[in-house]
Amino acid sequence: MALIHGLHSRNIKGDLLGGLTAAVVALPLALAFGNAALGPGGAIYGLYGAIVTGFLAALLGGTPAQVSGPTGPMSVTVAGIVASMAALGVNQDLGAGEILPTVMAAVVIGGIFEALLGVLRLGRYITLVPYSVVSGFMSGIGFIILVLQLGPFIGVSTTGGVVGSLQTLINNPGLNPAALAVGVMTLAVVFLTPLRIRQWIPTPLLALLIVTPLSVVLFNDDRLQALGLEPINR
After folding, report:
1. Residues 6+ apart with CB under 8 A from 132
2. What is the dihedral of CA 189, 194, 196, 202, to 10 degrees?
3. What are the start-end ranges of the H helices in the chain?
4. How far apart are the first and last CA of the chain?
5. pLDDT tens, residue by residue, 206-223
6. Window from 138-142, 202-206, 207-211 with minimum mean pLDDT
7. Which residues have a Cβ under 8 Å from the Cβ of 218 and sit 6 or more positions away?
8. CB contact at 8 A, 148 and 165
9. Kindly report the CA angle at 198 between 194 and 201, in degrees rounded to 5?
10. CA nearest 32: which of 74, 87, 80?
């Protein structure tokens, strides 16, 4: 029985499992991308963004089969906006209440332009962009994310963009063994899980379910850096 467009009773089980998996996998991504984009204290806003995006994509999306969630390119773009605003003298501290409204305004304006491009059917012209340009752009985004996550991977707190993170790592070469162990265990689960298991459960979800309790049992102290999920009080 078809309930609404794109939603059928025979697909309820798959829809629920798919939604649950996407939500669980998107949770740590949203927290990490929030921190990467907005700096310390930004994790909670990454979580808010993932929640709102999920509802809006489901209500306004143009296809019955889609998965929405936080993405690396957008987090890097927002990080660039934050860096640009900071260079202009805007206080980058989220607690000051200056940078967040500016970033939100920039993101909303960008969304309006994207909607206009869709209404005017200009998206077709993306096919004119050479593949090497798109590939280079995505490779650059991947490199930026990789560099920004090197610090958290080894347990070193970094600030700023790529240059700032690299400078921090060079000037403070120490590492946190607990954080490194958790990172290595996570990568091991993601890449070494047998194919017969990966067919039934996504490896990022499996890593989250296995490594999270292990980190609590093995490193139940202050050696692991917390993301900081307390919302900013206005």
Report:
1. none
2. 20
3. 12-38, 43-60, 72-87, 99-119, 131-154, 162-171, 177-192, 195-198, 203-218
4. 48
5. 888 888 888 888 876 566
6. 202-206
7. 178, 181
8. yes
9. 140
10. 74
Distances (CA, A) of 230 to 41, 142, 233: 7, 29, 9
pLDDT tens track for 33-55: 787 777 767 778 888 888 888 78
82-135 per-position pLDDT tens digit: 777 777 777 767 665 677 788 888 888 988 998 898 888 887 888 888 889 888
- Total number of residues shown for the chain: 234
Q: Which of 27, 31, 29, 10 lies closest to 19, judged by CA?
A: 27
Task: Kindly list the distances between the CA atom of residue 79 and the CA atoms of 96, 103, 135, in Å, as whole numbers in the listed order.
Answer: 17, 9, 21
Whole-angstrom Cα distance, residue 158 to residue 26? Answer: 23
Say if residue 93 is exposed, middle or buried (CB neighbours under 10 Å; 0-12, 13-18, 19+).
Answer: middle
